[in-house]
Amino acid sequence: MVLPVNSRFLKEYKLVVIGGRGAGRSALTVQFIENRFPDDDPDYYYGNRKLCVIDEEVALIDVLDTFADEAYIAMREQYMRTGEGFLLVYSVTSRQSFEKVSTLHQEILRCKDNLNSFPMIVVANKCDLEHERMVGINEGRDLAKHLGCKFIETSAKYGVNVDEAFMNLVREIRKYNKKPQSRPKAVAAGKDQHQHSPGFCGCLVL
Ligand SMILES: Nc1nc2c(ncn2[C@@H]2O[C@H](COP(=O)(O)OP(=O)(O)OP(=O)(O)O)[C@@H](O)[C@H]2O)c(=O)[nH]1
Ligand SMILES: [Mg+2]
């Protein structure tokens, strides 16, 4: 496979899928990585990398599915620290999972040295279950706006907006990394040692 690459280098993005129990974290991860809906209800999904071209730039997306169980608290702090972007997932059929989103958002910011903002997207999953809906689309939108995040409704079951959710999060990370205050000091001061000529492009052979 030969990909035309208008990118200066292959950038890896560490995305974390987080949310209340049964919200569909594993199903979203499997649907994104393998383009299928898992029949076997996995507790946790291990295979987790995908190469995408987003806005003509190659992105190696590393997705971490997480456990909802509070028993994994040490692991939780670890991935909250290392994650570069977070999908805050709730199920439109579960108000409990919706109410968890704000708590998770706060927890992530706390782990990021109390930053005011960090790349996150609010994902309202199971939008195919309209007849079981407990959380309205506007409630989801309002919450996301309040948290300063993008919002998207998905169905992991039917693959609706799943790629868009992950890709939009990568876009948020790119935007965030361009802000001077979120870049390493040497780069912000114009001392980036990895600068290339503006016209650099290449091909990635897999
Ligand atoms: N109809 C429908 N069912 C879904 C969707 N996403 C997940 N499910 C179902 O919801 C249940 C929970 O999905 P999981 O992907 O295991 O959710 P999780 O958040 O990983 O759950 P835990 O890891 O067990 O906390 C499973 O029975 C899935 O088949 C969806 O978009 N639509
Ligand atoms: Mg799971």
Overview of this structure, please?
- One of its GO terms (molecular function) is GTPase activity.
- This protein is an alpha/beta fold and 206 residues long.
- It has a single domain, classed as 3-Layer(aba) Sandwich (Rossmann fold), CATH 3.40.50.
- Helix content is 33%, strand content 24%.
- Strand 6 (120-125), helix 4 and strand 7 form a beta-alpha-beta unit.
- The chain is globular, with a radius of gyration of 18 Å.
- The termini are close together.
- The site of magnesium ion (MG) has 5 residues, from helix 1.
Keywords:
single chain; 206 residues; alpha/beta; Rossmann fold; binds guanosine-5'-triphosphate; binds magnesium ion; Ras-like protein; GTP-binding; GTP binding; nucleotide-binding
- From the N-terminal CA to the C-terminal CA, the straight-line distance is 5 Å
Task: List ligands, each type once.
Answer: guanosine-5'-triphosphate, magnesium ion
**Could you name the CATH homologous superfamily?**
P-loop containing nucleotide triphosphate hydrolases
**How much strand?**
15-25%
Task: Report the count of strand segments.
Answer: 8
Q: Assign the CATH architecture.
A: 3-Layer(aba) Sandwich
Counting DSSP H or I runs of 4 or more residues, the number of helices is 6
Structural class of the helix and strand makeup? alpha/beta
What is the percent of helical residues? 25-40%
CATH fold-level assignment: Rossmann fold
Low-confidence stretches: 183-206
Number of domains: 1
Strand order within the widest beta sheet: 3-4-2-5-6-7
Major sheet characteristics: 6 strands, mixed
